[in-house]
Amino acid sequence: MKTLLLIRHAKATHESGYSDFERPLTEKGIHGAEKMAQHLQEKGIIPQLFVTSPALRTHQTANIFTDTLNLAPATINKGIYDAGETTLMRIINELPDDQDFVALVGHNPAVSQILYTLSGATKDVPPGTVALIEFDLDNWQEIYEDSGKLTYYDNPKI
User: Fold this and answer.
1) For residues 90 and 127, what is the distance between their CA atoms, to the nearest angstrom?
2) Residue 90 sits in which domain range?
3) Neighbour tally for 71: CB within 10 Å
4) How many other CB atoms sit within 10 Å of the CB of residue 8?
5) What tens digit of pLDDT does each residue of 129-154 get?
6) Is-contact 115 131, C-beta < 8 A?
7) How far apart are CA 46 and CA 101, in angstroms?
8) Contact 111/89 with Cβ under 8 angstroms?
9) How far, CA to CA in Å, does 103 sit from each of 11, 17, 45, 131?
């Protein structure tokens, strides 16, 4: 069985002076990511591997999660930044099969789109959202549209 934890980066600044790629998390975003990571820890939802976009806000979000969960730093995948649904599906299909539980930290609208594509779940995905999808499949390459089931969903607003 493969399990994917989709995480939309936490709330980032919209202040001028930053390129989109360099936007940092706000204090609210940092606290929201800490809250979500603590919720996962309390529920025993601990991925084996984190994969993140290289953008500052996603990298910061991933670092908060990996620090809280006492995991190795996230692997950076450049393809996640500016990815659409098709690119995210390819990235998921290429995840290492020796890892059964992977977290992917990315951006909207792609996170919302891939959540719906994989599970059929229509959920609001505000910054900091976590969505756990389980697949009754043995290889990441076998994952396809509607092959997963949303088993956990949370965001800092709940």
Assistant:
1) 23
2) 5-14+19-154
3) 16
4) 26
5) 999 999 999 999 999 999 999 999 99
6) yes
7) 8
8) no
9) 18, 30, 10, 10
Q: How many domains is the chain built from?
A: 1
In contact, 20 and 56? CB cutoff 8 Å: no
To the nearest whole number, what is the mean pLDDT of the chain? 97
* Residue 99, domain CATH: 3.40.50.1240
Rounded CA-CA distance 154/34 in Å is 13
Q: Which residues contact 66 (CB under 8 A, 6 or more apart)?
A: 50, 72, 73, 74
Is 86 in a helix, a strand, or coil?
Answer: helix
Cα–Cα distance, 106 to 99 (Å, whole number): 19
pTM given for the model: 0.96
Q: Which two tokens stand for residue 31?
A: 């606290």
